[in-house]
């Protein structure tokens, strides 16, 4: 990642891909009767989790990079491929109804569940030495905005868009993983 414009573009694509998971889960959560204040709180919470999880991943990734050198880069690419395939696979599985409500402890479980994949991506970005502040801003804002969008759109398009949004996010991560592994 050489130029800041190129890195910003790449990070925004990754942030969008990770945020699509929050968007698709938000579509499902949109069926709950939520006030605008509650929707705001949910988006901010998920945005914060999408800051902390990649930060932890980046710290671990930098450590791995220092310890294992070039092999750590291949591990990072493989991680993105696995994560992308898993997201695509999950998008086509039968719809399971969530018993987690976005209130109290349920909100933290919800936020953690949609931000776990950002830890893995943070690990990869840490291995490659991405700019930490840029990663955290991109990931946090994208997750927050896409969560709000998912919750607000909610009921109307949940059945159709929910599946395809997660598949799109998985495809983007899969492509980045392949790019890291293959010298193109």
From TrEMBL:
Cross-referenced HAMAP family: MntP_pump (MF_01521)
Keywords for this protein: Cell membrane, Ion transport, Manganese, Membrane, Transmembrane, Transmembrane helix, Transport
InterPro entries found in the cross-reference section: Mntp/YtaF, Put_MntP
A UniProt-annotated Pfam family: Mntp
UniProt GO molecular function: manganese ion transmembrane transporter activity
Membrane-crossing segments per the record: 12-32, 39-59, 71-92, 104-127, 133-154, 161-182
Name the UniProt record assigns to this protein: Putative manganese efflux pump MntP
Major site of localization recorded for this protein: membrane
Function statement: Probably functions as a manganese efflux pump.
Gene responsible for this protein: mntP
